[in-house]
Write a structure and sequence with these properties.
heterodimer, A: alpha/beta, Rossmann fold, 4-stranded antiparallel sheet, 10 helices, B: 290 residues, ABC transporter involved in vitamin B12 uptake, BtuC, 11 helices
Chain lengths: 236, 290
Amino acid sequence: MSALLRLDGLEAGYGDLTAVSGVSLEVRRGEAVALIGANGAGKTTTLRAISGLLPVRAGRIEFEGARLDGLGPAQIVARGIAHVPEGRQLFPTMTVRDNLELGGRAADRRHRDDALELVFALFPRLHERERQLAGTLSGGEQQMCAIGRGLMARPRLLLLDEPSLGLAPVTVKLIFDTLQRVNGDGMTMMLVEQNVPRALQLSHRGYVLENGRIVLEGTRESLRASPHVKQAYLGL
Amino acid sequence: MDLTLVLQGLLSGLLFGGVYSLMAVGLTLIFGVMRVVNFAHGDMMVWGMYLSYLLATRAGIDPYLSFVVCAAALFALGLLVQHGLVDRVIDAPHEMQILLMLGVALVLENLALVAFGPEPTRVRSPLGAATLWLGPVFVDIARLVTFVVAVLLTAALSLFLYRTDLGRTIRAAADNTYGALVVGIDVRRVYAVAFGVGAACVGAAGALVSSILPFQPPTGLSLSVTSFNIVIIGGMGSLLGALIGGLLVSVAESLGAVFLKPSLKELVSFSLLIVILLFRPAGLFGKRTS
């Protein structure tokens, strides 16, 4: 199975701070891969570097065999990677529908309508609130809108940054069930998540990031069985 | 006090307000999208006036037609200023942007001085002499046409922002710049277009008033100050605020000229600013920032 996304010795940071270094990982077609770790471990930094939202200082990023590092976010979205950022980053004074359609900007009208139909089927709540301003949605609805906006780009890889953050357990379950369905339909995903049990439930494989470096990697089962993961992340 | 005089002042002020609105809409668009205050706004407008002057004197084109050309030329100037200069300081602290824009203002003003000299000018238009009597008050046809065109242009701009894909990406970048980057919007291009459109507004506004308002190179500064006043009254970044604020300030100035004396009209519009800020610190239609 070929890798859809491959990171090789990635280094990125902010100002004088190096947030991640020597990060190598891969995501294969159809997989859901979790990136887990504590606050400040460098998970978000890694996702932002993949999306071109943060410059890559060293190392390389390959997507479908072509190099991504050095490209801007607009080009990377066009290559087929959609990012659902931490804190959702919606357009608060615009309608739900505007938000979604902005996610599918690159597509032509017909494809955009198809994608919209798909998103509304996944999140009927968004369909009901189509004309509502995104800033007036509840936290869970905003997260649905952010995921929907990412899916509107019809990406081949979906990056998800903390989709469960600040949400009620019942909403978290709804969102993860939906993500599971989307992955089951063939969407490749890379997920950053503090809710490790949930993240491992959704993912086939995972990487553990500590202090900007990958300290452990493996399948869902091997990570669940790892004494380190059990103690540090699962609280067992 | 003569009631006819007050009515006349009200009407003239309202009609002149269209131009104020258009000019402030341009400023508020630029601010709303990139959080940069265009201190060269009034000077860009003066260049719109001189351009319509050149087109009228050299090519015989009436300013009520040439405003289209002036808008296009200023769009190009705005694009150039954004792409070549503002873009370099877009992430820098505000004082850097202020220094840059003040520099652009000085360059534009002094270029106009070199090119056209310090004497006040005005463009002649056949519409300038035409008036229409409505009972006791008269309507200056030039002002009426200026008002109608300015309001139509403002309406066209909001259609562009609310009904087109490019307009929607501009609103998105104004709403959440990081979010815009995330969905793959080329934010720098959006900035250039927004600056161009903002400058085109004053290009058109300049041409439209060039037959009503005598102008000279230093007029730019007072136009900039008036634009800021309107935008702050209306609420920074609000198009509707700029539209209503423009009409309000113009009527206030016009009535100030009737009740006090013409040289004190600014006293009235700035008093209006202070009163409005006392009751609505974010302006009439401004959003409170937390």
